[in-house]
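Hi Y.,

Following your request, here is the sequence exactly as I used it, all 520 residues.
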Amino acid sequence: MKNYEQAVQDANVVGQNAPLLTKGHLVKAQALSGLGRSKEALKEFLYCLALNPECNSVKKEAQKVMCEVFFPASENVHQNFTPSIQSGLLNSTVKAQCQSHGNTQSPRQEGGDARSSQNPLEKSDMFRNTSSSVLYFILGLHQEEDKAMLENILPVAPSPGLKRQFPNDLEDAQDLNDAPGKIPKKEADSSPQRNVNCDVGGSPELLIDVTDFECALCMRLLFEPVTTPCGHTFCLKCLERCLDHAPHCPLCKEKLSELLASRNFNTTILAEELIFRYLSGELSDRKRIYDEEMTELSNLTRDVPIFVCAMAFPTVPCPLHVFEPRYRLMIRRCMETGTKRFGMCLSAEHAGISEYGCMLEIKDVRTFPDGSSVVDAIGISRFRVLSHRHRDGYNTADIEYLEDEKMEGPAYEELTMLHDSVYQQSVSWFTSLPDHMREQILSHFGLMPDREPEPQSNPSGPAWSWWILAVLPLERKAQLAILGMTSLKERLLAIRRILVIITRKMNSRQELINSRERNN
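Below is the corresponding structure, written out as C-alpha cells. Let me know if you'd prefer a different format.
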C-alpha cells in the first residue's frame, strides 16, 4: 500500500514503547525515505546500526540515503549502481568536491606546498558537520580501497585534548584584528602553542593553546584541577579560597553547598593528563612556583601566620572555632605545608598585635558543612614579635623564640625550693574552689599537670605553671607580662603573689558570708 505516513506514526508508537527495538527504527527509516525525508531517514538508519552493527542490509540502505543527503544532484545516478559502485562513486565525488575547494584558493596559496590544501578551514561543510568515523564505518564496508581513498580525503580524528584553530593566512588575521572592539595581539605577547602531530602524513596540525588550560581565578596554568558539578574547572587552591567566602561557583554562581559539605574535591584526571602530556614544560614551571610558595609559607621565623584572638600559653590546650575566610585560608595553609603551626597573639590598640605571643600546634581539624571548623591546638613555645605585616588578609610576623634562663649552683637549689612551694600553694588554691568551678576549669583546660622533678627540663618552664596562669582570673595585660618573662624564678614569684591576693579575697568574702549567716 505504501502508506508511509501511517507507517511513520506506527513506528513512533513502537519507538516509545520499545526504544531499543532495531526493527522499529528500520521501519521508520524506510518510511521516511519513501516520503523523501532523507535526513530523518539517515538518522534512523544510524540508530539501527548503533543497535545492530552487523546488519548489512541497513548499511546498504544507509549508503544510498547518504548519497541523497550529501549529493542530491547525483541521486538518480546512484540509484542505478550497486552498493560497491555507490561507495566508490561517493568517494570520487567527495574527492572532487575537496579538489574544487582547493582550486578556489588564492594564487599565493596555490604556490605553497602541498600541505596547504589539507587545511581544515578549506574543507567543505560536509566534513565539518559529519563525523569521519561514521563515514569510515558505512562507506568502507565493501572495498579496502575505499578506506585508503578516504584517508587521503577526510581529516583524521583529533587527538585527545582541547584544540584551538587559528587563522593561517594574513587576510583572515587582518579581518580578526579589524573587528570592532578587538585588540590586536602582538606576536611576542601571544600565548605559547603546542603542535599536536597526527599519525597520517599531510594532515593538518592542530594547536593546543596554553590559555585553554588557564584557571579563570588565578589566570595561571591549572594546578591540581578540580571540576565543579556545574562543569567549571579551577585550581584546587583557588576554588577552596572562593568557597571560603561563599558556597557558589565563581563563574555561574550555582550553589555548591553539597560540594562544600562533602569536601569531595577530586582531581580532574583528564585535564591533568592532557596538561602533563602536552604542556609538560609549563607544568614544571607551575609546580616550581607552587613549591616556592610552600617553602616560603613553611618558614617558622619569618612571615609566621598569626591568629589575633585570645591568650595562649605553652603546653595548654587552645581550641578554636574558625569561621572567617582569612583564618580558614591560614589554617588550610598550615596543614598543606606540613608545619601545622601558627602564632597566637592579642590585639593591640596601636601596634596591631601584642609584643609577645605563643606558638600553637594543630592536633586536629574538624570541618563543618558550612566550611567553618573547630581546630584543636596546643601551645608549644613563646616568641617575641620583631615586625609584622599582612598576607592575604591575615597577619604575619617575624619572630624570635623565648627560652628561660638556666640557673646553676645555689641559685638552682633556691629555684627548686621555690618551685615545690608554689606548686603546693597552687594545688591548695584549686582544691578550695567550689565543685562547679573546678568542673568548668577541668572541662576546658584538662587536668592540672603533675609537678616535674626537674624545673628547668622544659625551655619554657614547668607545664603546671602555665596551666595555673591560664585558669587564674587575671587581666590579659598581666598574663601577657608574665608570658614575656624569661626568668622562671620571677614567674614563680609572680604566681605566688597572685595566689596570695586571690586567697585573701576569697577568705574575706567567705568570712563576710559567715557573719551574715550568724546575724540572721
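The CA atoms of residues 404 and 458 lie 9 Å apart.

Thanks again,
Q.
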